[in-house]
């Protein structure tokens, strides 16, 4: 089984996280360029064309020109097989975005050098930290005026609570951007934007001791660089691979995705500093990726990619072994039923294609006749087991749902339950009430539109959504607490999930604190356990 090991060892599966506009798409595009997956940079971008065509499955997307779901790109580079998990931004941000991070082995955090840490980076970062996966930072747009480098690093450390270790160091920024200094090799790579759109182009590299360096970058930059190197060597955290693996130290790189400067250096370091898929936790202990049994878990379900067929695609992350088309597997949460995974698909750059085989680390999408739920385990192992569950992420927007035609009660309940089962929304009830008062929680507001649209189009049910001011949800950890006796702030609302578990929602974080103060021993959690 040397082949299996070889295939798995060359896999790297990661997500790119960033705030919209920091340059995630541009960076991805450049990665693909190095992998030869696309010939010309620019083809990922065209959000209205190439990228759109892939997920062109809903009118809403067409109307708004955005993609509602995240996808996976696979390409080969330098002997590695790379899977990039896309995490959508802006309004199309949803719980799916968080769940995608559950399928990644590491994350690349793209930060705009002139903006620093932004809201969405912060949110996604939290999930990466929860999973203790390695996080690599790429500070982008150095060809534009950037914040002071020390300040940027300071901000990452303070705001995100992770130590940083710059692998290279920028010389100036904006019009004065001269290149980056490689701390390990003690060389300067001079900035040039001739690589824009191509992977060829000259890279000029000078040793820090080279006499011509001063002339190349100018006296002021030269002096500043020497000073900063000295400061840095004394002040910054030492590089420690062990801390990087645990997600406690982030290697930092500087560059400009747009002009393709520093991208390949980053990619190379990244690939060397990350590992192939690591064992995953299950109720039967850790599952080794090199195990001959195939195993995978469902992390995303995408409905109705084809309106005429009303089908769903279940996205699975392979955790061990090899997948071959047509193989029979056990669906553990489906009562250990034996099933065949049909129409397995994978994304190759921008194309969706039917695949014959895939390995641990890969993501496949299979046709789902409505049997899968988020977190389900699929395996060929003789003794079935379950991978550790995917947490329920805290919704940040809530609305009360009213059905306009009360005669269609059955369709309404069926529709909303199915959509919740796919993981697009979370549904709750007023505490102590039944399905007559439904509260929907979503991570991104766009999901409200998706819900309304899908109920109307697929289930023929019209609804009205009444937004609630609540933005914070907490799961009650105490098993033996008397919910009726809980006293909170006036904005606090008691709700329950479909299993009857009690939860609290609040308008602001201050109320969460007050409620904790007022109820001794109360334990609230930010993520729900499935
Ligand atoms: P996102 O996926 O993180 O949302 O960001 P995206 O790559 O779409 O980049 C956002 C904008 O920032 C784009 O400009 C892009 O060209 C620009 N950009 C990305 N990397 C760099 C960089 O290193 N330097 C500079 N100067 N700009 C960069 P746009 O005007 O919104 O789009 P476009 O019209 O250029 O395509």
From TrEMBL:
Coiled coil: none annotated. GO terms for biological process: regulation of translational termination. GTP binds at residues 18-25, 86-90, 140-143. This is Peptide chain release factor 3. InterPro entries: EF-G-like_DII, EFG_III/V, G_TR_CS, P-loop_NTPase, PrfC, RF3_C, RF3_dom_3_sf, RF3_GTP-bd. The gene is prfC. It comes from the Bacteria. The keyword Nucleotide-binding applies. It comes from Roseburia zhanii. It is found in: Cytoplasm. PROSITE patterns: G_TR_1 (PS00301), G_TR_2 (PS51722). GO terms for molecular function: GTP binding; GTPase activity; translation release factor activity, codon nonspecific; translation release factor activity, codon specific. GO terms for cellular component: cytosol.
